[in-house]
Amino acid sequence: MATIADLISILEGMNGIIQENKDFLTQLDMPIGDSDHGINMARGFQAVADKLPSLAEKDAGTILKTVGMTLVSTVGGASGPLYGTAFMKAAVVANGKTELTMEDFLAMLDAAVEGVKFRGKSTTGEQTMLDAMVPALEAMKAASGSAGEILAAGLAAAQAGVENTKGMIATKGRASYLGERSLGHQDPGATSFSLLLSVIAKHFA
Amino acid sequence: MKKLINQVENVELEMLQGIAKAHPQHLKKLPDYNVLVRAEKKTDKVALVSGGGSGHEPAHGGFVGKGMLDAAVAGAVFTSPTPDQVEAAIREVATPAGVLLVIKNYTGDVMNFEMAAEMAEMDGIKCMSVVTNDDVAVQDSLYTTGRRGVAGTIFVHKIAGAKAEQGATLEEVHAVAQKVIDNVRTMGAALTPCTVPAAGKPGFEIGEDEMEVGIGIHGEPGTHKEKIMTANDITDHLLSKILADIDYSGSEVAVMVNGSGATPLMELYIINNRVADVLAEKGIKVYKTLVGNYMTSLEMAGFSISLLRLDDELKALLDAPADTPAYKA
Q1: Structural domain boundaries in chain B
Q2: How many contacts does A have with B, using Cβ atoms within 8 A?
Q3: pLDDT value at position B142?
Q4: Which tens digits make up the pLDDT trace of A123-147?
Q5: Residues 36 to 65 of A: which have CB under 8 A from any B CB?
Q6: So what CATH class is A2-204?
């Protein structure tokens, strides 16, 4: 399904979509958090994009591990350790591979979800990025057809998951301090995950 | 946005360099890291490392020095520092006696400091940590992240720092830090929001005639908005929440009336005037009072009140010598 060239192109696209949505993500974070999600993600993915030219000859595991370590050391906040852990856990599955199948991708996302749950001591229903990640993973495991079709099902589930966070009361992350005041707000982390997944889905559409 | 800065990307670095140039007798900046460490490394005591997002000055770099912190790690404004930065601080000040991390209870801070401690421990550095959570504005429950760590953290720096300076073991320093956390409570309110330089606009909106009660130190919303009250009324409200949380009756306390950045000392003293009267009325003896900017939120107008319940050990450690840019005893 995916070559190293595909992976590099997707990571470039991820930086692009984060830069385009920097202000949007920060605005989402304003009423419930500390107004920095877009700023932090943009700083981190720009650092990732700067490293991509030196990674073109590497295997998928090395590339993803570098992405994870770069995010951990540049994003800060909670998103840095969470996205960094997600990419580093995916890297373990992709270790040594120069081509990735849909099966590999699902195993990588599975490992990423477990990593985020562990690092954030969190689960679904707490108004976090997991509320987009877990539905996406489940939808893709259940879907059949081409890579494009499976990814489209995952993206639709992630986007529905983002919508669903508006009906949740945050119990993890900084929004949890608001209690019921977090109701009605779309989670910034779930939103950024959905944006990242949309880049993969578009690449294979 | 109206700020005295050069480039948004450089505010943290230029600030740290400015602190280091102002206080060379106390501290220095680590090259390549946004970390301030004591000017002369101590090798015979437990090292204290704290930090967090920038924008809370003098916290935490202003408390690096004798009797308080050995290192302070500064993240981007209101953003936890990354694990590599925290790890660099730990490595620089680590001693055979070990390192105590003082972490404010925010999801990002806890995750980044824990990752750093895991990395340092892999190389044989003995680390323990405490998580401060003094803010009574947010409800504590099994299902949330828990209370926020706010201005009461400064009491942890002072008291655990004094204990470490006396040559106590890591376990003893950890225990006294936890004792402070168990006995300190804080709540604040804000009149105006603050603007993170990189965001360029205020982090929350508040009407000209309103105040945000229970405000966090990152300008994050509190429990509710309310019509602005007199200094005495808002003080009474915040004190009632603090006093309801643990039993202060008959005890001696240390009081901190902390400014959020844009509140003049005049107003902080007006607040303290009321705090002292209310405590006297309730038979709570004030052992020590601190009034000033200890844990700020950029240019936010607002304040917080912290009450630390004291025993003989905490009193002695609070009085022990300290010499840092922002706290002297």
Answers
A1: 8-182, 184-318
A2: 106
A3: 46
A4: 999 999 999 999 999 999 999 999 9
A5: 36, 39-40, 43
A6: mainly alpha
